[in-house]
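Notebook entry, structure prediction.
Reason for the run: the old model in the group folder had no record of what sequence produced it. Starting over properly, with the input documented here first.
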Amino acid sequence: MLKHLLLTAGMTAAMVAPALAQSTNSGTDKFAQLGPELPTPNEYRTASGAPGHAYWQQRADYNIRVKLDDEKQAITGSEDITYTNLSPDELPYLWVQLDQNIMDKNSMTTATQTSQLQTRMPFQALDYIERSEFDGGFKIESVRLKGAALKHTINHTMMRIDLPTPLKPKQSVTFSIAWHYNINDQTKISQRSGYEFFPKDGNYLYEIAQFYPRMAVYSDFQGWQNKQFLGAGEFALPFGDYRVSITAPSDHVVGATGTLQNPNDVLTSTQRQRLNNAQGAQKPVLIVTQAEAEQAEKGKPKGTKTWTYAAKNVRDFAWASSRKFIWDAMGIKQGGKNVLCMSYYPKEGNPLWGQYSTEVVAHTIKTYSKFTIPYEYPVAISVHGPVGGMEYPMLCFNGGRPEADGTYSAERKYGMISVIIHEVGHNFFPMIVNSDERQWTWMDEGLNTFVQYLTEQEWERNYPSRRGEPRNMVDYMKSDPSVQTPIMSNSESVLQLGNNAYGKPATALNVLRETVMGRELFDYAFKQYATRWAYKHPEPADFFRTMEDASAVDLDWFWRGWFYTNDHTDLSIEGVKSYTVDSKNPEVENALKRQQINTAPKSISDMRNLQDIPKTLVDKKPELKDFYNNYDPLNTTAADKQRYQQYVKTLKPEQQQRLSQGLNFYEVDLKNLGGLVMPVIVEMTYADGKKEIVNIPAEIWRKNNEHVTKVFVTEKPVTAFVLDPYQQTADTDLSNNAYPRQVAPSRFELFEYQQRQQQNPMQQQVSMQQKEDKPTNTSAGGTN
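New structure, fully documented this time:
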């Protein structure tokens, strides 16, 4: 067992130094506190990471009316926006987001898209370069205040509205916007919203979002967030109440953010009864069955219905509409409140969707609530359609469709479950903990992917999670630095969004939870962050500071390495030296020396001399021998024993114990080759086969970020040392983690090389000529 741990950079073999040698500083300081990287705390945001006593945020309330044109695949809408200025500033103008303008033919996204031509290209690649002639941008018909036109300026995906008089603090203004736009075919122009056409039954399925002009965020930390939407950085939005009336074909089923306000107008009595039964159901209840949906697919009435939904204290609104929808629901209790979990999907989604979707929604709400805050919204909805995965308050769009015959692969099943968990989980990040996605994608995607991983593991034992485990991030972290960007990069500048904004932050949080902080400290601090910033606008510093403030763990080194650099983990055991204490006891020490001599390897010369020189001269002439030919210096004499006893009497009792303990000392030389300072996790295998793991905090590197030496003191001899045996730290090179070095097993395949024979141009010409000259039968038994 491990007896003592000695923090040191070196130890003398005789153990006589009065103090252990110290490391020298390498000149770098990866443990420097985050100073200039973080904003200065103030009355709005404190040094603890909590909102300050003067924290404020704006509010935007909406009354929206939209009509879906199922013949032309278009949206016509109008809205009244009540904007309340809760800041201490006067606002002479307001900024409104027109994110739909990303699909304008002259969009900045299209103009700045980069690509490369190749000698062979598929048609789809050229289509992507050229983009279609589809015009999907907003057509703003009017902007009015009390019936009078408001001056407004459209700058790509942003619109500035100039107010007649500045909006003073604590004042509100209500203005109206009317617009229309064409809906994109999501299967051809992939965006976060669109339609899918089903040729077999001639019907459409619509997943609609970013469908209305939306207020931009005005905040204490940056003023207006009016950065253009280029496609990657998603949406920064203020909270407010929504009332949305959606007019659709009369046989469509419409699902949306919020709760349905007019069920008597749009649902049959049977559907209302089923919906009521679902509130306390233990498994999903079908509100619209597959048979009913298939019957609806056959008819296309000309009439319309208007579905009205209302949602309180949300940051956005989305909806879906189709006559193809099957609809199921089940209720759960969360934080003392009822939550109705629901799914909308076409028959093409079964059997996967009917079996799993709503169950996954319910599981996600429960698990996320455990790790963050109780879910307070009344519904949570998963919709299956053409959008592979996109999130909005209370409603999300998800992919994962089985084959036409109803079969599916394991990858398809778990991919579907994972995307539903992920998108439903976005209700917490950023729909409730409302970070700025336009600036920091990782604050919603990374945190959400981390809790997604926790939720997947609670769904099924050994769930095949793609992200979260440190070993799954190794390939990215050891890749060419030119294709990496630090996590703390703007959303539109990230080179590999999936790895940078989803995978790496999720891995970092898992490492924090399992290896750096421990589950208890991490979970408490993470819940504290969610509680502090629920329904508010946190920034990275608020997260960093809260995690430290609530745990008493200094994490500046961790944020600096994982979030501000492209450093990776590669710790190496460079060497191990073994020592034992000289007991001074001649009987013990002489026996050890004799054993070393007897077990020492023979030289090749010695072995050959035994054969080539049967007898030496002294063997032939014994008269040449003297005292030293028979003298054994390792024989312990009475005088040796007497001297030892006299020496022992001069020692204190604790010193005598030191001499007789028989401890083993191992000087382990460690190097940080990847640049990322991390805890050192050492597994020691003892001579009796038993193992022990020692966890050393990352602060071991604080005086030298690159090279340290650690001394381990054990009662039993150690036969092997291994770093990070459970792959907790995303170490990118396991070949240098063991001492003695271990051979990594691998395999290669043998095959017989067969060169493909291709005709040269002359052979091709001859072959073609032979085909042309070959007689052709014109009838049975006849020839030309």
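Summary: The longest strand covers residues 59-69.
The old model has been moved to the deprecated folder.
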